[in-house]
Amino acid sequence: MANVLFTNVRVLDGTGAQPYTGDVQVQGNRILRVSRSSSSATGGATVIDGAGATLMPGLCEAHTHFAWNNAANFDDIQRMPTEEHVLWCAHVAKEYLDHGWTSCVGAATAKPRLDVVTRNAINEGLIKGPRYLAASQEITVHGSLGDETLPHIPYPEYSFGAIVSGPEEMRKCVRMFLKYGVDSIKLNLSGDNFVPFAPAETTWMSDEEVAIAVKEAKIRGKRVSVHARSCESVKQALRHGAEVIYHASFTDSEALDMLEANKDKIFVAPGLSVILKLLYEGEVIGVSQAKAKDMGYERELEAAVNSLSAMHKRGVRVLPGGDYGFSWAPHGTNAMDLQYFVKYLGFTPMQALVSATALGGQIMMKPNELGLIKEGYLADLLLVDGDPVSNLGVLLEKDKLLAIMKDGVFHKEPQMRSGRSSRWTLNAA
Ligand SMILES: [Zn+2]
Fold first, then answer.
1. Quick one: pLDDT band at residue 203, thresholds 50, 70, 90?
2. 253 CA from centroid of ligand 1 (Å)
3. 323: CA distance to ligand 1 center in Å?
4. In terms of residue numbers, what domain contains 209?
């Protein structure tokens, strides 16, 4: 059983309190003791002298797509053969952990069982990866985001989403994903400016379709998450009791009031990277700024900044993460989201960190045992060479993560160094 004592660390506990110097002891998979003073009694623990490095809770990515393969378009993701795709997901799962994301919320996968088998393999110890909530494919309707079929190529396998029409087809589709063992059902309620045939401000599903999907998911105790960029789709999600709203770019005062009224039940994960990267750095993939504006991204950014800033002010839980895994925002660069929250949404760096840790425990459905450095909590910890509060950028640098622990087990052990000049030592007591 693990018995590890971090001494001389700056404890950034995830509550929003300023860091303090202290000790943290881990026993088994939980935090046994947190103290503001150093104790010479080690109780037989392996002692890690942090020499002033920051110890913080592991990060949570609230809008993850393991199956997105860093391609520049949906086709190149969807057409990856299943065998390669499974290996890709295993590879990416480890990459998340390597970058300090000890929890990830699956937001949709590209083939029916990719997320489920990846989660199961992580939990069985076959592959390395974060705690993971597995998602269904994006369920969509004909003509909307995720329907990639063509009149002369009507095969659903070519399509990004699972396409349904009407409540009974929806019921069948949801039940299929529940049978496969997903933790959440994903519905594409709105379109997206990435696809010209269904822009962001359009709304596609009927209330009957959404209602039956939520009903079936809840019967099995599962969660519904939605792709909702349009104002109407945000309201539709709230009317029907979806718990995780992705994007929420367009709102009006009624939508904001509804979001606030449901703030203890819902989570919002905007995934700003797509908008920002295509608008400001799209040239690298052949999207000029003029084209990005034409696609509606300038208008959407302005709306999203207003909507999400207002949500944050009203106490709605807005979490980082989202839609990494495209060529313009590859997996591993997800910590950019914390900086986006500060630059665009009015968060302080500390609020962004709370969002990525304490709120992460909540969206992972472990509100009283994950996301904080607190006695009794699960030991998902990062030892960071630097101060994330004064420099969020440090979280983008893999080498600055001196140690990564998930569930009391080191994914990355601090380097063993000897001699008095060592900053980080690992001594068996
Ligand atoms: Zn997404």
1. very high
2. 25
3. 5
4. 59-363
